[in-house]
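FAQ: What does the model actually see?

It sees only this:
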Amino acid sequence: MRSRKSASLCSIPSCGVCCHRLWSVEVMLPNTGRLAGCTVFITGASRGIGKAIALKAAKDGANVVIAAKTTQTHPKLQGTIYTAAEEIQAAGGKALPCVVDVRDEQQISDAVEKAVEKFGGIDILVNNASAISLTNTLETPTKRVDLMMNVNTRGTYLTSKACIPYLKKSRIAHILNLSPPLNLNPLWFKQHCAYTIAKYGMSMCVLGMAEEFKGEIAVNALWPKTAIHTAAMDMLGGSGIESQCRKVDIIADAAYCIFKKPKSFTGNFIIDENILKEEGITNFDVYAVTPGHPLLPDFFLDEQPETIIKKMESHGADPELKKEKSPPPPKPCSGAVEETFRIVKESLSDDVVKATQAVYQFELSGEDGGTWFLDLKSKGGNVGYGEPSDRADVVMSMSTDDFVKMFSGKLKPVVAFLSGKLKIKGNMALAIKLEKLMNQMNARL
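And it is asked to produce this:
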């Protein structure tokens, strides 16, 4: 869903139009034909990322339901559900354009019924429609707050709910939300709190539905590592922004990789570049609007965790931490807890202690586990094995594997907590403060 009045309501990265024709350049990831005959229901598919995913599926001979609002060309946002349908059919697929405002439950239901009537079912749902206003709390009108909550969170929830009965019958059965990994770094809330809450609502749907429908439907999130060039990005970023972006093709290829996965691949927050690397792709210049030009990182992603992973490897920690893998669970990280605390200790300072003023106790189960502490009250700070000398303000209980993942940036504390992997006792405000501290320490490594 996009506003027809203000560029500030256009989604990044979930909408817009690429500056050139899709598929006019070499596509690194080849089609396999896996989606032939499958029905893909995509919200916001009249342009941009949604349409790119649609065209990728169409090359396999898929049926695509274009569930979007635009029926007439917008002066600044090219494409309608009908022009998208023509392109999908030209690419080798079948198309069903449906007028859908995801805020309207009846329009969603009608589109789902039409899709099932025409194609016999639904195999994949892509929740791509999104609204954005990058404004702070006092500058965000209630109308825009409601728009973002209703399109991003509520729209994703209702569309998923309408499609799930049919997805359960599919041999493929995927829900893919274009939403970010859950990240409690206050940086991502400070300037645009309402947007972050609304966008994280889509990610929370992944967290909940993946568990609720485990074994029946794969539910995952996909997010770009860098900014994606769309018309919305042009309007929000200004002239010349495209040189710092990648093309929508990279999201389409990454989504296709996910659709090839079995139903057991669920509950993942996937970054486009990472999953394509797993497919053997090493040259990403083909996805750049301007190959070789520095790229703009996307929202909600912290780069610092990569630093601690490299640092841990130099100290002999398990290099498997670099790989994003779905189940089975990772092998025990023998010695990795001790190495992690040693690296953390090296980054401590009086400034860190002064800014935190808390003692953390970790009750870790598994190999290299036991009781550990992080004292950020005493001068210079301290870490070690056993209980702290002063009473802990926060006690965190988790496995050693998840602890290492959390400190290396592979597992967000909020995800660990909400999924039951992390149990917290004590001062929750100081617990949340620890994630901010992690980012500060990583930056020092």
